[in-house]
From TrEMBL, chains A, B:
Region span, Disordered: 83-107
Organism encoding this protein: Nocardioides kongjuensis
Biased composition (Basic and acidic residues): 86-103
Cited InterPro entries: Pyridox_Oxase-rel, Split_barrel_FMN-bd
Protein name: Nitroimidazol reductase NimA-like FMN-containing flavoprotein (Pyridoxamine 5'-phosphate oxidase superfamily)
One Pfam family cited in the UniProt record for this chain: Pyridox_ox_2
Domain of life: Bacteria
Length: 147, 147
C-alpha cells in the first residue's frame, strides 16, 4: 500500500496526448453519466465522435464535461488517473474537415453512421498516482504497439 | 470494427461482482466528477471507502451516483463497459461493522486514515460490448490471480 500522489500538469498532458481510450463524464438532466470513448487530441482539445441523439450529442455542448483516463496494474495494486476538465463543444463542420485532413481522428472501434464530433478544450488537467518507481506510460496502448 | 451490443443484466451483474476497480461518477455543485475506486459488492450494493471531506463523502450521500467498470483490449480494438446506477448512501457504523466481519472489503491500494464507507445499492445495471467471440471476464483481475 502506498500514498496517493498528485501528478504535475506536464505529466498529465503527456499521458493524455498518448492515450486513445477514456471516459467522458457529464451531467444529463441533473444525473451523472459516463460514456466510454476513443479519443484523439487536437491542439489543446480532446476530440471524440458520437451519434446524433446520443448523450454526448444532447448534453455535452456548452456544458461542463470531463475526460478521464487511467491505467491500473491489478497485480501490484497501483495505478494512475488523469482528468481533463472543460466544456463540451460541438465541432463545426468547417473546423472538423480541417482537423480530419491533419489527423486520423480517434481510433474507430465501433461501426457508426452519421457522426457528430464533440471537442473538450481542457481548462484544467489533474492527475493522481499510487506507488512510485514505475513508468506511468507503460500501460498506454501507443507504447505497446511501438509508436 | 464491430457493432456495439448491449449486455444483459445477468452478464452485467457477473462482471460487476467479479471486478475490484472502477470509477464512481457523481454531480458536485452542478459539475460532473469522477473518482477512481477499489470496490467490493455486498448484497446488491457496491461498497467503497473514502476519506472524510472527500468528494464522495460530501456529494454522494442521497444523490444519484454510478459506478462504471470496463475492460479494453487495445490491440484488438474492443472492450466492454458496465454501469451500476443508484443513489449513494453513507454506511452507518453498525451495518459497516457487520459487513466488515463478513467480507474483506475493497482492496486497499492507498494508505488512508479515518475512513468513511459509501454504498451504492444498484437500481439499474447496463452494459455494452464491442466485438464478439471473446471472454468478457478474461480481463478482470480476479481471473488473473486465479480466484
Amino acid at each position: 500500500m502506498s500514498a496517493l500522489e498528485e501528478l504535475d500538469v506536464a505529466e498529465c498532458e503527456r499521458l493524455l496526448r498518448r492515450g486513445v481510450f477514456g471516459r467522458i463524464v457529464l451531467v444529463a438532466g441533473g444525473r451523472p453519466e459516463i460514456v466510454p470513448v476513443t479519443y484523439t487530441t487536437h491542439g489543446d482539445a480532446v476530440w471524440v465522435r458520437t451519434s446524433p441523439g446520443s448523450l454526448l450529442d444532447r448534453y455535452a455542448d456548452g456544458e461542463p464535461v470531463l475526460l478521464e483516463i487511467d491505467h491500473v496494474d491489478h497485480e501490484r495494486g497501483h495505478g494512475w488517473s488523469v482528468v481533463a476538465r472543460g466544456h463540451g463543444e460541438r465541432v463545426p463542420e468547417g473546423e472538423r474537415s480541417d482537423a480530419e485532413r491533419r489527423t486520423s481522428g480517434p481510433p474507430r472501434w465501433v461501426r457508426r453512421e452519421d457522426e457528430v464530433w464533440i471537442q473538450l478544450r481542457w481548462e484544467e488537467l489533474t492527475g493522481r498516482r499510487t506507488g512510485s518507481g514505475w513508468d506511468l506510460a507503460a500501460g498506454l496502448p501507443v507504447d505497446r504497439i511501438g509508436r
